[in-house]
Amino acid sequence: MHELELTTKKSKLFIGLYIFFIFGAAMGDWKVLNEALGALPKVISAGALGIAFLYVLWSGNFKNFKPLSRFAIMYSSIIIGIIFCSIFIWIMDLQSFSYIMKGVSKISYQLLNIAILVAAVYMFEENAAKYTFFGIAAANFVIIILGAATTGIGGAVSDMIKNITSFGASDVILNSTFIRAIEIHDITFVMGVFVIYFLFFTPGERFRYLYAAIALFLFFAGLKRIAFLSMLLGIVFALFCSLLGPKGKRRTLVITSLLIVAFCYYYIIIIQKGIFTQFCIENDIELNGREKIYDYISNFYEVSPSYRGKGYEFCVQLLKSMKGTKDQVVNITAVHNDILKMYVEMGFWGFLCWILGYYVYQTNWFVTRCGEKVAVCFMAINIYMLITYLTDNTMFYYWSSMVIRMIPMCFFYAPIKDPPLKETAVYRMNKFDRWRYNKRQRDKEQAIEPRMKIE
User: Fold this and answer.
1) Which of 119, 133, 222, 301 could pair covalently with 188 via S-S, beta carbons 3.0-4.6 A apart?
2) The predicted structure's pLDDT at residue 420
């Protein structure tokens, strides 16, 4: 029976099928397929649900259903909150039923995303994120090869070096067919998450540094400047927390989550008042038309407790409606600012509930149910993603949202063990080993007992 419980975790068939499904779905990010099929190829990733369901029927293995269901409920509660907040706004604004259903469908796919990642963790536990990385990275390499086929290997290498050395300068990207072909936003952003994950949160992985190097290469291949800064901040946070004991980690997590809430609120204010765009202009920071979008959207909201919001997807529909008209400000229909978008659409109180739920409630949930180390993992990758939210549309990107939910779950399942000390007799230890021993003893005393257990 013990071998049966580990079938999916060790079976090459299950692992191969899952990686294939992720690879097929990620190939949908190739611009040629994306322009032809849109988001349709991502449905292939639902194959993970299929093989997990078949395994449950065949084995009757309900191991870990209880902790997995708690993860699913916690993640889903944020999405369901956005849906109900939007429905309330739409009803108050007397929107049509078709408009409401269109908005609901736009956000509801995130529930499928959650179901897929839960199925993956059910089958592979701590290895789910690694196998997801294999599938996405394989697709990324294929996309790079397909892009290089149009320019040749020499031209592709030359263009990639120019892009990296210019730090993603707009003129380099515009003048390179190859760079435009491999500029796959979601996959590039998610590679930064994997760099942080493999460096800090895969304690038992033999090839962690190799995987981190591959993720870093793919990250630079589709270089996004804001993501580079984001990754550095995520790494600094993880490094800082690694020096702290359990009490220090908990204190840091609480302070960080509250600072994020305050920062996001004041960020909305400086956007609305034009301070952010003025700062960027004065310091020659390229916004690529974002400032025009921010200024235009500022006509549709106010920073006030009386502002009730416009409902999910309002900003996208607004920018689409002005496309091709005299009111068009730029030739894009995305806000490129997820924090602003959430405020405009959720309203003052909806935005406050969302941001408190996302950063404060979820952080506390991870601390109490999974422990401080898992909570640090959650916060480190979410600090990375938060910075991208400030000037991009990454919040509900398919792969980004899947991976940042999956990684803390995998780390929860990972066997986190302290390496043995060289000597057990304290008086015979050198100063460094004695410091490590004393710190470990303090950590044991300070650590809280997680409320959730792996069955």
Assistant:
1) 222
2) 62
